[in-house]
Amino acid sequence: MVATLGGVASLTNDSAEIARRPLEAEHCALIVVDIQEKLLPPIFQKEQLVKNSQLLIRLAGILKLPVLATTQYAKGLGNIVPEIASLLSGTEPIDKQMFSCFGSDAFCSLLKRLPGNRNTALLCGMESHICVTQTALGALRQGYIVHIASDAVSSRTEWNWKIGLDRMRAAGAIISSTEMIIYELLRSSGAPAFKELLPYLRG
User: Fold this and answer.
1) φ, ψ at 119 (rounded to 5°)
2) Selected catalytic residue, list 28, 34, 101, 151
3) Average pLDDT in the chain
4) Side-chain-side CA neighbours of residue 165 (13 Å)
5) 105 given a catalytic annotation
6) For this structure, is 64 an active site residue?
7) The model scores a pTM over 0.85
8) Distance CA 109, CA 104 (A)
9) Which of the residues 28, 96, 124, 151 is marked catalytic?
10) How many Cα atoms sit within 13 Å of 57 on the Cβ side?
11) Residue 109, CA atoms < 13 Å, CB-side half-sphere
12) Nearest CA-CA partner of 153 in 183, 184, 122
């Protein structure tokens, strides 16, 4: 029992230390999980998920963050929705059947080949309690720092959206928001990148 309690205390301390670290653009990669045509319609607050995922993809383009996008069995569940796919030019979605992106050899290989020290994964997409959670847990096991844009992930029900966030937080992921991630990476209202993204933030 003591060992278990010590482990919990250690995890809590580690998570707090990681949460204190500022996001650094040169260390981040954005993972866009399964925002697909046949999966999106029943999703809780789907308009918010799409809008905020678009913001994160635009941010990645401005700051030159690598973007990895996935689909879950595209043959049956459809392609990435057009309003997201249109912003992913040059990014070929990785189709998978495992719920975790880390169950895909193609995904793992591409992630490892990203240039620079990309040790921080920013996650958006769906569903919060299935593919996003399992991907976050896989990233944490691989030693990545994980930030979840909580308002850019969702599930078919509000309960499962929230319980997914709870599980990821307990595992050591940082539960953030789209604007928290954006403003932390942009740093200053005087930055050219901030001025470039500002029209979309006002939208």
Assistant:
1) -105, 5
2) 34
3) 93
4) 19
5) no
6) no
7) yes
8) 9
9) 96
10) 24
11) 4
12) 122
For residue range 145-179, list pLDDT tens digits in order: 999 999 999 999 999 999 999 999 999 999 999 99
Q: How confident is the model at residue 134 (pLDDT cuts 50, 70, 90)?
A: very high
Write out pLDDT tens, residues 82-108: 999 999 988 899 999 999 999 999 999
| Secondary structure of the chain in HEC code, one letter for each residue | CHHHHHHHHHHHHHHHHHHHCCCCHHHEEEEEECCECCCCCCCCCHHHHHHHHHHHHHHHHHHCCCEEEEEECHHHHCCECHHHHCCCCCCCCEEECCCCHHHCHHHHHHHHCCCCCCCEEEEEEECHHHHHHHHHHHHHHCCCEEEEEEEEEECCCHHHHHHHHHHHHHHCCEEECHHHHHHHHHCCCCCHHHHHHHHHHHC
Residue 2, pLDDT above cutoff 50:
no
On the question of pLDDT at 48 being above 90, the answer is yes
Residue 131: how many other CB atoms lie within 10 Å: 26
For the question of residue 34 being annotated catalytic, the response is: yes
Percentage of residues of the chain with pLDDT beyond 90? 87
Count of all residues that appear for the chain in the document: 203
Instruction: Kindly name the residue from 28, 124, 131, 151 that is annotated as catalytic.
Output: 131
Residue 4: how many CA atoms within 13 Å on its side-chain side?
1
Q: Enter the tokens of residue 63.
A: 């700051």
